[in-house]
Amino acid sequence: MGNKMTQELTPVQQERLQEQQTRYTQPAFLMQLGFVGILALTPLVIPSFRVMDVVAKIMIFTVVVASYDLLLGYTGIFSLAHGMFFGIGAYSVGLIIHHSGAPHWYHLILAILVAVGLSVALSLVITFFSLRVKAIFFAMMTLALAEFADILAVTWYDLTLAEDGVSFSLPGIFNVNWSVGKFLAADINGRLMTYYLILIIAVLLFVGILRFVRSPVGRVLKSIRDNEQRSVALGFKTLRYQVLSTVFSSAIASFAGILFAMWLRFVNPTSVLSINPLMLSILLMLIIGGMGTLYGAIIGAAFIMIIETWLPELQKLGVALFPNLEFAQRLVGRWELYFGILFILVVFFFPKGFVGTARNIIAQRKMVSSESK
Amino acid sequence: MTTETTSLELTVKSGFSAKNLAIWLGSVGIWFLPLIWIDPSTYMVLTVAGVAMGMLLFLAASGLTLIFGLMDVLNLAHGAFFAWGAYVGFSILNRLNALGWVETGTFSQCLVSVLLALLVSLLVGVVLGFFMERIIIRNVYGDHLKQILITMGALTVMVEILIIFWGPNDEVVLVPAAFQGSYDVFDVIINKFRVFAIFIGVAIFVAMQLVLKRTKLGIIVRGGVENPDIVRAMGYNIHSIFTGVFTVGAALAALGGTMWGIFKEQIYPGMGQENLIFALIIVIIGGFGSVTGSFLGAIMVGLAFNYVAFLLPKLALGVNILIMAIILLIRPAGLMGQE
Amino acid sequence: MAEPILALEDVHTYIGQHHILQGVTLAVKPGRATVLLGRNGAGKSTTLRTVMGLTPATSGQIWFEGDHIEQHKVYKIARKGVGYVPEDQAVLYNLSVEENFRLAMFSETEETWQRMETIFELFPDLKKFWRSKAGVLSGGQKQMLAIALAFLNIHRILLIDEPSKGLAPIIVDHLAESLNHIKDETTVILVEQNFHLACQVGVDYFILDDGHVVHQGLVENLVDNEELKQKYLGIG
Question: Looking at CA atoms only, how far is residue A240 from chain B in angstroms?
């Protein structure tokens, strides 16, 4: 007791102090910096729009999956409404700009406020339920809620233009028509500016989640996930932490939705609100990357985004191979089938995901080497 | 705690306390509320439509509730059985139409057509359910997270296979001539097929209750819903019972799907997923493992949906979610759930 | 020495991460009522559950009448003649008393119904509540029903887990009476915290502590052994 007075630090405090001092020279940090640098250089060096498109989507979904990992992997709350929050963000941007005619700067700000506000409100309601009912009930309720949002978007033509979707343009330097010439292999235009905006915000959000998880709050969350009764007995007001975590992760997912809408300049229910394929994709990305790992989100998002970008090519292949046999065309071309099969196989055989399995192997090696000492 | 019986029995046993009476009046009376905004004959039409819709949803929900109640398995792929039933029924009716039995058939031909369609979809449901239990469900007993994930994947796969066979478009289902049109009862127009749907739903409910309450199999299932370990320790192979219940549940869902197709006269690949939500809501409202609960819950959902759809179309599904939320708050185990 | 009717050798059982049974070795002689004693958490209930197959053994061997049963499924073990009365819920509350019995009957024969007569003599309350749901019975009556269900079929061995838990002393006496009745037909293996009841019923004993057997012998020798009672059972 009275550590602060005696200038003597506890082992935990010493460790943290050391970590803080050497943080920016650790090899891991330099690698992370390098990685971000690569992302920044990609559009300048690789002239393909396809590549930039995939990378932008990967960045966005990394953030979504990381926020979902926070919710499920770290806090242990199984919600199927995460895609809905993503959709709320996307639709906020799309509808505000669409219904006001010409795009302005303040629309983006307004969209952020609306999206985050709505997400916070909804997630507070949802959290209230999650603690009153058992986990499976909660999962099913969130499923029903998400389907409802989807159906609402599909049937409310006047507001959302339903399945046709809402197309819109972005203000200022993000607008497609803005251009100031070339640099290296790329045009300096609205797309590029949007790309860099996404890069910056995605990195900030991801780092934000990392810091959150490593903070004292994050540690409490882990203890709640592992043994809620114990945490309550230790005096933590678990409710507060769960609420904090849920609200934080939903808000981030909405933000990612905003970025996504800005990138596509188009929103429709299937791409931003659906259970199938949106929520399923998020789940698959999380599992493939590894639950409770955060970094797994990067791998999961990359893996699935790449598959989703090139798998629809199968449809063209199907038509090309069997120009007259509709059945055979469908057999080859319905990539969603193979996606579903992949999903099942991953859950059966690879439930820990890449990073999860890697960490397991490392942990086992450590155990073996420490036991043999 | 575990001696708590249903509120119905409580009311009977403990006598009519004021609180119980109030709850009962409230839950029955609330269904007359829409009369404030809807005229009586429209109200009757909606009521019949609601009950009919409820009966068909009951077919899907009853399987789901037994499966969860007995096996503690959350099967989100249940919707796929529903969709398959609908498409199989659709194809059978098309084939029979070529023989002139459907759109231009006599009463007996129409009846046989429908029964044949139901029978075939029942069989398809049995086959699909059996293989799904053996191959997929077997491996995820006890792990709810995995169950949800795997059955979501299975739903996708099964619906995709359906699309591969039938194509991704909406299809129009032919209604047999004898079931087209309506009866005119005191100025209330009652659709003929809706009556048939109610009849089938009630018949199945009665049949299920008879099996559950009067046969040894029923005792085993009810016992297993409450405590599988006791039943196993009494020497019953609860695993084959599980497979049987799963298969029956799938068959019922397929049946419901076929009926739904004729009811709505239209089918589409996503119908399984959308109706799954209704089934889930019904199961939650009624309580896991209770067939009576899903029967009542289904009627509630059907009525609520139809009344609200008439008044505020977009909120119809939302109202049901609201009901589910309210029930979860005041009675987390559902109307007739155990524990 | 008679061949044991049930034998465990170096049985380990894990429940999740917890190593509950850490090498249990014991043998039960046919016709000799055996009691498993020990403190809370010693592994007594788990031993019964492992024999029954409800919590399968992770390693070790279990013989029942000469057969290896450690890998068998629960229902197969039950059909071989192993009866089980669990610790907490032993009857089905949502089923009527009648339905509980119908479920417990392997086959409804003339003999079975004659046994029902004996059961009604031993437990008259059950006749009174025949059509009521088992859930409305009192705690003591539920236990009687549980014992009666076990008594209905003639098992080769009967595993009973803490039947006296939460019961009033007068009911425990009635319980002891019925258990003594059963002893004649079946080899009873009883887990009990109630030392007095255990001594009334048991002939041989095994004391478990920390997941393995620490002491065994004849009950008549244990009754007055204050040292053992204090050390392993915390009584005396």
Answer: 20
How far apart are the C-alpha atoms of C100 and C129, rounded to whole Å? 12
Q: Is the CB of B232 inside 8 Å of chain C's CB atoms?
A: yes
**Residue pLDDT, tens place only, C119-140:** 888 888 888 898 989 989 988 8
Domain boundaries, chain A: 43-273
Give the residue from C74, C108, C154, C161 with the most B CB atoms within 10 Å of its CB, the best one to mutate.
C74
With contacts defined as CB-CB under 8 Å, which chain A residues touch B321? 141, 144-145, 148
Q: Do B233 and C78 touch (CB under 8 A)?
A: yes
Q: Check: CB of residue C201 under 8 Å from CB of residue C180.
A: yes
CA–CA separation, C84 vs B231, rounded Å?
Answer: 11
State the total domains in chain B: 1
Q: Is residue B50 part of a domain?
A: no
Size of interface A-B (CB pairs under 8 A): 110
Q: Which tens digits make up the pLDDT trace of B56-83?
A: 999 999 989 988 888 888 888 999 999 9
- Helix (H) or strand (E) segment spanning residue B264: helix B238-264
Is B28 inside a domain boundary? no
B142 close to C (CB below 8 A): no
Interchain CB distance below 8 Å, A351 and B164: no
Is there contact between A and C if contact means ≥3 C-beta pairs under 8 Å? no
Q: Is C224 left (phi over 0), alpha (psi -120 to 50) or beta?
A: alpha
pTM of the model: 0.82
Please report, as a single letter, which amino acid is at residue A144.
A
CB B158 within 8 A of CB B77: yes
**Chain A interface disruption, residue of B64, B158, B164, B320, most A CBs within 10 A:** B164
Range(s) of the domain holding residue B75: 56-330
* Banded pLDDT at A7 (limits 50, 70, 90): low
Would you call B215 an interface residue with chain C, using a CB distance cutoff of 8 Å? no
Domains, chain C, ordered by start: 6-91+152-233 (3.40.50.300)
How many CB atoms sit inside 10 A of residue C80's CB?
16
Q: Give the range among A100-104, A110-114, A183-187, B3-7 with minimum mean pLDDT.
A: B3-7
* The amino acid at B42: T
